[in-house]
Amino acid sequence: MVQTLTGPFTQILTLADLPIKGAIADDRLQLITQGGIVTQGEQILELGNFEELKKTYPQAQIKFIEGEHVLLPGFVDCHTHLCFAGSRAKDYALRISGKSYLDIAKAGGGIWDSVTQTRQATEAALTELIIGRADQHLSEGVTTIEIKSGYGLNVEQELKQLRAIKKAGEVSRADLLPTCLAAHIVPHDFGGTAPVYLEYLLTYVLPKVSAEKLAGRVDIFIEVSAFNPADATNYLRAAKQMGFDLVVHADQFTTGGSEVAVELGALSADHLEASTDIEIKKLAASETVAVALPGASLGLGIAFSPARKLLDAGACLAIASDWNPGSAPMGDLLMQAAILSAYEKLTTAETFAALTYRAAKALNLSDRGTLEKGKIADMQAYPCSDYREILYHQGKMKPDLVWKRSVF
Question: How are strands ordered across the β-sheet holding 75-77?
Answer without folding.
Answer: 75-77, 142-148, 175-183, 217-221, 245-250, 268-271, 289-292, 317-319
